[in-house]
Every structure is written in structure tokens, then in C-alpha cells.
């Protein structure tokens, strides 16, 4: 992926991240956040069904014999677009989650929207997914919680053209409707990219202005989240090959043109997305558009199996443990790190 369009300040930070030596650490958490869009390309209903069926039929065989440091298979989080809600394929995807292979969260493309309409849409979607399909979870207060990815990268009305959102107080709407964390970034080289990169942090909304998540307060050990803030979980963003004469952006995208590899794994680790003052836990949040055929061939085929084996060998060689986690589990592990835990407690990850 080329560098055009990346803001200079973001480029400088990503360049420095790409030049870091590989850090020493003890735990690696790998989360794949899928912008799962069976309708991509204005697909017919039959093609949408074909795309969903491929995942339902092929995911289990694709991970046979693959396990992390605690013997768990790879996890896949399907961020499903609620603007094209289809109960049939949601039911089918939920079979994978019920079998222990991942989770479902919220994805949304919208344009020229307003806060009232957005609130209604999110509440209806979370109710449907929870009550009708047994998805999402409730916290101790009984509130349905969800993770979120914004379509077209335009979270909080951040698209430079003003398109693909329209809601300057979107972060507030997300938080008030039960969102526990946003997983949209990175967007680079798109101009909706935030100045803050390679970070886990809390955004505080300015309801009068767009892109309130451009900066925020870093998640840190023994530091409480700021009041009325929303957790931002970013994926890796580094400039690769800084000394090779042809620099490019590594943004954690898994695609037909960007298959996973050992070199990319090193870049993801080098990004060092952590909770401040807990350097031993590194969070690698990757993203993909898994319903697209060219991408599903990678994700459900030999390239991804090869990556899992590469990860296993790298962990053995470098002496760290690695864990496949869902988006929801990532957020809960971040909370554990903030509490000062030195080893993850996976028994605490289930919300009722």
C-alpha cells in the first residue's frame, strides 16, 4: 500500500514505529476484526448467501489442528453491517460463534445522518442481534454491549469531504447506546486517519466538532478511564522498508493483495500497541473484508494456515505466549492490564 494521502505528522510517527527494534514481551493477543459485508459490490441475494455459506462451511476445516498457547482455535470477529441486516445469514454466522470460533459485533455505513436516527438504529440493531440471534452480551447492569467499526473510516464525521456519517457527536451516541470500544482505526493512507496511532486510548467527544477521536487519553495501568469517554482500540500502523527506497504502509489489513507473513508479523509487533506501563502485553488488532472472494481465499486457505504456523514458531523462538481473542475479549483484557494484572485471567472474560 503506497503512502499518498497520509498526513505528514502521522507519516512521521509511523516511520519511527517502523524503525523500532523488535521489543521483548511475554503475551501477544491477536484479534481479527472483519468488516463482514456479504452485500459488497451490490451483490445479489444469491451471491450474498454464497459468501456467507463459504465461511460457515469452510472456517472450521481451515483451522483444524491450529491452536494458541492455551489450546484455543483462531477467533474471528464478524462486524456485520446493520444497514443491510439479513436475519438468515446472521443466523448462519452465529453457528460459528456458538461453536467457539468467534463473535459478532456492529458495523455501519451511513451518510448525512443525525444523532436521533443513529441512536434508534443502533438500539434496534443491538436488540435484534441479542434477542433474536443470541448475539452480543449484557454487562452486570443488564445493558447490551457491542463493539463498533465505522464504514468508510468516517467515525465521528471524520471523512474530509463530510460524507459517510454526518453526526459530530457520534462518539457520545455510541457510548450511550452500549458501545464498549471502537475498532475502526487505522485508516491510513486514507485522510480519515487519526493523528493518534498504534494506541489504545480514550476519546472524549466534542459534540460540536467532528473527529473527536483524533487524540485522546492513553489507557494506562492503574489509571481509570476518563468520564464519558469511549475506548479506541487501534491496529498497527508502520512505514515499512524505510531504508529500501520504496516505502509503504503496513496497516494490518489482510487481503488477497496483502496476505499475512512473518515479515508482516514483525511489523505488527513492532507497532507495539499496548496499555501504557504494561509493555509485556502487545495487542495486534488486524482487519479485513472477509466476504470478498479474493480475501476469503487468503483467510480460509493456505496463506492463513501458514501464518498460524509462523506465529507458533515465532512464539517458541522468541519466548512469548500468544492468544487468539475476539474484539470483546480484547477490550476486557485491556481492562485487566489497566488493573495491573501481570497474567491474563481468561476465566473473567465472559459477560452474562
Describe the structure.
This protein is α/β, with parallel strands linked by helices and 352 residues long. It has a single domain, classed as TIM Barrel (Alpha-Beta Barrel). Strands 1, 2, 3, 4, 5, 6, 7, 8, 9, 12, 13 and 14 form a twelve-stranded mixed beta sheet that branches. Strands 10-11 form a two-stranded antiparallel ribbon. Strand 12, helix 6 and strand 13 form a beta-alpha-beta unit. Helix 2 packs parallel to helix 3 and helix 4 runs parallel beside helix 5. The model has no long low-confidence stretch (mean pLDDT 93).
Could you outline the blueprint of secondary structure elements for this entry?
Layout: H1 8-18, E1 27-35, H2 45-62, E2 76-81, H3 87-98, E3 102-108, H4 115-132, E4 137-138, E5 144-150, H5 170-176, E6 179-182, E7 200-204, E8 217-218, E9 229-233, E10 238-240, E11 248-250, E12 253-254, H6 262-271, E13 281-288, H7 293-299, H8 302-318, E14 321-324, H9 327-338
Parallel strand pairs: 1-2, 1-13, 1-14, 2-3, 3-5, 5-6, 6-9, 12-13
Antiparallel strand pairs: 4-5, 7-8, 7-9, 10-11
Helix pairs in contact: 2-3, 4-5
Number of helices: 9
Q: Find the CATH topology.
A: TIM Barrel
Poorly predicted regions: none
CATH architectural name: Alpha-Beta Barrel
β-strand number: 14
Given helix and strand content, the structural type is alpha/beta
Distance between the termini: 41 Å
What value does the Rg take, in angstroms?
Answer: 19 Å
Order of helices and strands: HEHEHEHEEHEEEEEEEHEHHEH
Feature tags:
alpha/beta; 14 strands; single chain; globular; 352 residues; 12-stranded mixed β-sheet; two-stranded antiparallel sheet; TIM Barrel
Amino acid at each position: 500500500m503506497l503512502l499518498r494521502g497520509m498526513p505528514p505528522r502521522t507519516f512521521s510517527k509511523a516511520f519511527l514505529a517502523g524503525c523500532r527494534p523488535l521489543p521483548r514481551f511475554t503475551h501477544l493477543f491477536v484479534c481479527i476484526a472483519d468488516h463482514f459485508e456479504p452485500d459488497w459490490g451490490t451483490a445479489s441475494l444469491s451471491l450474498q448467501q454464497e459468501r456467507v455459506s463459504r465461511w460457515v462451511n469452510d472456517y472450521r476445516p481451515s483451522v483444524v489442528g491450529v491452536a494458541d498457547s492455551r489450546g484455543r482455535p483462531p477467533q474471528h470477529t464478524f462486524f456485520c453491517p446493520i444497514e443491510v441486516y439479513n436475519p438468515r445469514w446472521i443466523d448462519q454466522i452465529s453457528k460459528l460463534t456458538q461453536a467457539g470460533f468467534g463473535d459478532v459485533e456492529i458495523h455501519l455505513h451511513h451518510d448525512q445522518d443525525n444523532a436521533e436516527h443513529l441512536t434508534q438504529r443502533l438500539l434496534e440493531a443491538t436488540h435484534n442481534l441479542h434477542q433474536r440471534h443470541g448475539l452480543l452480551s449484557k454487562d452486570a447492569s443488564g445493558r447490551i454491549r457491542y463493539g463498533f467499526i465505522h464504514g468508510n473510516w468516517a467515525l465521528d464525521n471524520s471523512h474530509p469531504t463530510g460524507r459517510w456519517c454526518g453526526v459530530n457527536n457520534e462518539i457520545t451516541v455510541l457510548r450511550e447506546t452500549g458501545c464498549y470500544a471502537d475498532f475502526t482505526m487505522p485508516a491510513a493512507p486514507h485522510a480519515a486517519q487519526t493523528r493518534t496511532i498504534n494506541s489504545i486510548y480514550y476519546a472524549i467527544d466534542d459534540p460540536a466538532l467532528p473527529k473527536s477521536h483524533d487524540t485522546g487519553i492513553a489507557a494506562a495501568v492503574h489509571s481509570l478511564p476518563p468520564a464519558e469517554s469511549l475506548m479506541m482500540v487501534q491496529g498497527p500502523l508502520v512505514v515499512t522498508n524505510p531504508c529500501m527506497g520504496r516505502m509503504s504502509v503496513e496497516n494490518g489489513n489482510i487481503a488477497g493483495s496483502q496476505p499475512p507473513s512473518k515479515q508482516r508479523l514483525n511489523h505488527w509487533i513492532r507497532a507495539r500497541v499496548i496499555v501504557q506501563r504494561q509493555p509485556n502485553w502487545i495487542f495486534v488488532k488486524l482487519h479485513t473484508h472477509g466476504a470478498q472472494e479474493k480475501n476469503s481465499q487468503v483467510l480460509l486457505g493456505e496463506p492463513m494456515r501458514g501464518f498460524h504456523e509462523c506465529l507458533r514458531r515465532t512464539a517458541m523462538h522468541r519466548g512469548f505466549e500468544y492468544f487468539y481473542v475476539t474484539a470483546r475479549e480484547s477490550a476486557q483484557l485491556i481492562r485487566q492490564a489497566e488493573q495491573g494484572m501481570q497474567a491474563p485471567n481468561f476465566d473473567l472474560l465472559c459477560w452474562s
